[in-house]
Write a structure and sequence with these properties.
The chain is of the alpha/beta class. The protein folds into three domains: 2-87, Arc Repressor Mutant, subunit A (Orthogonal Bundle), CATH 1.10.10.10; 88-186 and 307-328, Rossmann fold (3-Layer(aba) Sandwich); 190-304, Response regulator (Rossmann fold), CATH 3.40.50.2300. The protein contains 14 helices and 14 strands. It has helices spanning 2-9, 19-32, 45-52, 56-68, 87-90, 102-115, 130-140, 155-160, 190-199, 201-204, 222-234, 261-274, 291-295, 307-320, and strands at 72-75, 79-82, 92-97, 120-125, 146-149, 169-173, 183-187, 209-213, 239-242, 254-258, 283-287, 301-305, 325-328, 330-333. The strands form three sheets. It has a six-stranded parallel beta sheet with strand order 4-3-5-6-7-13, with helices on both faces. The chain has a six-stranded mixed beta sheet with strand order 9-8-10-11-12-14, with helices on both faces. Strands 1-2 form a two-stranded antiparallel sheet. The longest helix has 14 residues, at 19-32. GO terms for molecular function: DNA binding; DNA-binding transcription factor activity. It comes from Flavobacterium akiainvivens. This is GntR family transcriptional regulator. InterPro entries: Peripla_BP_I (IPR028082), Tscrpt_reg_HTH_GntR (IPR000524), WH-like_DNA-bd_sf (IPR036388), WH_DNA-bd_sf (IPR036390).
């Protein structure tokens, strides 16, 4: 009994957890870490009142919530007991990511498949909006056994994540500078982008200019922008940075680089309308690979991390809880678009 109470007390330092959320998550943690197993008796309402000073109504509501979720069971006149030894059978996971682009769908499908059928998964989108991210985290805190989050880089996000138990958070896609020792499975944007541009330098120099479409204050990583600028300077490449592609503005003799698929599709459409030959009259580089870019116009050159692998590794962490701090490599895939 004392170990269960200790698990609940350990969450007192988690900012903004209500007493109800603290009690629910504390018992889930105790089961997950095998402090108690199936059939074990849980502390009575009176015991929790005496040890923690929680209101009777709060305890009753938390136990009712756990019963409803199938984690514990109530036996008439005897009390509350652990209902399952298989934590993952009842494990609830909150996945919070940017949006549902093709590459993020690849991550999701592999993550979902890796978790298996016995893990409950809810997905939320923050669309690179901090207010949305904050509202989502405040809504889900204390209600899930694991939180898998694609963070918005910045100090505000690092502070926000402190409302969640750090040992139950996995950061994916983007790394976050923080004083917390989080587990993560992410990609790297700075050095990998520079290396990709450098390997393509000779092909890019066949053209008069390279155009990079980049939207400031967007979800696009600033590290790629900085790498692009450094590449142009180091390799004496003539280039320009524009915020977005204007339909119909495609020009012969230029290489175009975009992170957004919709811009790429629009430019490829204009390529066809203008009768340009890709790889000769005009060139394209894209970020984040997918099967369409492998096929369309005999292939588009990309540099991309392996989102399928990222999803699989994230699922492995959720199931095994082994320390994970991994950067998935970025790979340059050269095709006929340069």
């Amino acid at each position: 009994m004392k170990e269960i109470i200790s698990q609940i007390k350990s969450l007192e330092s988690v900012n903004s957890l209500s007493k109800h959320e603290q009690l629910v998550q504390g018992i889930i943690n105790a089961i997950d870490e095998k402090v108690v197993v199936k059939g074990d008796l849980l502390p009575s309402v009176n015991t929790i009142i005496g040890e923690l000073g929680f209101a009777r109504e709060t305890i009753a509501k938390a136990y009712k919530d756990l019963v409803h979720r199938g984690i514990i069971e109530s036996k008439n006149r005897l009390g509350y007991f652990v209902a399952t030894n298989d934590v993952h059978q009842e494990l609830k996971v909150a996945l919070i990511i940017y949006a549902f682009d093709i590459f993020q769908e690849t991550f999701y499908e592999n993550f979902r498949r890796g978790l298996g059928a016995n893990v409950h998964l809810d997905i939320f989108f923050h669309h690179n909006n901090f207010d949305t991210l904050e509202h989502t985290i405040q809504t889900v805190k204390g209600k899930y056994g694991m939180y898998v989050i694609a963070p918005i880089p910045g100090v505000k996000t690092a502070d926000l994540l402190k409302v969640l138990p750090s040992n139950r958070v996995l950061l994916v896609d983007r790394h976050l500078d923080t004083d917390e020792d989080y587990n993560y499975v992410v990609q790297e944007f700075g050095d990998s982008s520079y290396q990709a541009f450098a390997k393509l330098a000779d092909k890019i120099k066949k053209y008069n200019e390279i155009v990079f479409f980049f939207k400031p204050s967007s979800a696009e990583p600033n590290e790629i922008l900085n790498s692009f600028k450094r590449f142009m300077e180091d390799y004496s490449i003539k280039g320009v940075i524009k915020q977005e592609y204007e339909p119909g503005s495609l020009e012969k003799g230029k290489v175009y680089f975009t992170i957004h698929n919709l811009e790429l599709w629009e430019m490829l459409k204009d390529t066809k309308l203008k009768g340009f030959k890709i790889g000769q009259d005009i060139g394209f580089i894209s970020h984040n690979d997918d099967i369409v870019k492998e096929i369309i116009f005999d292939g588009v050159t990309t540099f991309s991390t392996d989102f399928a692998k990222m999803g699989k590794r994230a699922a492995e962490f959720v199931l095994n809880r082994e320390k994970t701090q991994e950067v998935i490599p970025t790979v340059l895939i050269e095709r006929n678009s340069l």
